[in-house]
Design a protein that fits this description.
three-stranded parallel β-sheet; TIM Barrel; single chain; 264 residues; alpha/beta; globular
Amino acid sequence: MKIFDSHCHIFPEKIADRAVEGIGDFYKMPMFNIGTAADLTARHKENGICGAMVCSVATAPEQVAAINDFIAAAVADSQGFFVGFCSLHPDMSEIELDSEIERAKSLGLCGIKLHPDFQKFHADGKRACKVYEAIGNRLPILIHAGDSRFPYSSPHRIAGALDSFPALTMIAAHFGGWSEWEDAILALAGKPNLYVDTSSSLYEISSAKAVEYIAAFGEDRVLFGTDYPMWDIRLELERFDKLDLSESAREKILYRNVQELLGL
């Protein structure tokens, strides 16, 4: 059975240590990997994973172009192992957003990564709406969802964005709401054009709850993701393997859903 990791972050080698340390400090959690493309590829091949979606997050508008160039180069160097999502920032102008989306597409990037908590914007606020207006239906969005410590990315805000912009296709990470999983079910289950991923969730929620969440969102709308560099990939696969799912559901979540979504 093919396995594709639909949620990975990578960084240039010269800053990877600092970037991974910063993620660990932000979430107050130990990191299990070093955050480079080479390390991600090695960890995946050790565990039988056939490919990965890679991205990074711009915390200022002036970082966007360099990050997208880096992700595009990593995809090209991977010889088909990676697909890439570009970064955007809500403080870019409408013209800058439109131009960078088209440039990202020309570079072969096939989606957009947003992180309201890192980028400090409300997922349903005016700054976000400017970004969604620019995106339209051109590329799917992987958005960090949920964090009970902050007001930015709560599931009800994600739901508000989807209601206001029905043309969007959105992947709400972490079962739609990290540390706010129950709220995510209430706010997001059944939303059109919404997918969720399993990343940064299986370590905390029970296997029974994970199966319940998959049923609520629908097995056709769930993607397997590890949130590299945060977790031990082998353990993430073991956690997924423990879920009481049909073989058909496993195949969809591990590969078929993302294959159809991104045209792999």
